[in-house]
């Protein structure tokens, strides 16, 4: 079992920055990949960025060059970060953290709201 808790969302003006965090606990040694997804009102959940255990990253075209993803282990917790720069109104959504394990189990966090508005 893996538990995921996101934080760092909020209201930011267009052009601003935010950093989202996801704390993973439990069987973190079984995690093979982590990712950030987002879901805007009336839209399907979409992949924003992902990172594998080897550090390989992947980004949605809409965020390339603006967002960065990273992960670090501290004691018994794995932290996943999403650095979001040059934010636009279209980035407004609930952002979710996702973990995939070597047993092909998938875990989701509860989500954190990001609102980009002046």
Describe what you observe in this structure:
This protein is mostly beta strands. It contains no helices and 11 strands. It has strands at residues 2-7, 10-12, 18-26, 31-39, 46-52, 57-59, 67-74, 77-84, 93-101, 106-108, 112-116. The strands form 2 sheets. Strands 2, 4, 5, 6, 9, 10 and 11 form a 7-stranded mixed sheet that branches. A 4-stranded antiparallel sheet has the order 1-3-8-7, with no helix packed on it. A hairpin with a 4-residue loop joins strand 5 (46-52) and strand 6 (57-59). The protein is globular, with a radius of gyration of 14 Å. It starts with a strand and ends with a strand.
Quick overview:
The protein has strands at 2-7, 10-12, 18-26, 31-39, 46-52, 57-59, 67-74, 77-84, 93-101, 106-108, 112-116. The chain is mostly beta strands.
Notable characteristics:
118 residues, mainly beta, 4-stranded antiparallel sheet, globular
């Amino acid at each position: 079992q893996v538990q995921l808790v996101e934080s760092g969302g909020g209201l930011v003006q267009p052009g601003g920055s935010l950093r989202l965090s996801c704390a993973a606990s439990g069987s973190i040694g079984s995690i093979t990949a982590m990712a950030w997804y987002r879901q805007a009102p009336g839209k399907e959940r979409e992949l924003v960025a992902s990172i594998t255990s080897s550090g390989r990253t992947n980004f949605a075209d809409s965020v390339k060059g603006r967002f960065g993803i990273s992960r670090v282990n501290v004691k018994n917790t794995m932290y996943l970060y999403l650095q979001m720069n040059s934010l636009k109104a279209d980035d407004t959504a609930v952002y979710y953290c996702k973990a995939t394990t070597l047993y092909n189990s998938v875990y989701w966090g509860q989500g954190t709201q990001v609102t980009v508005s002046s």
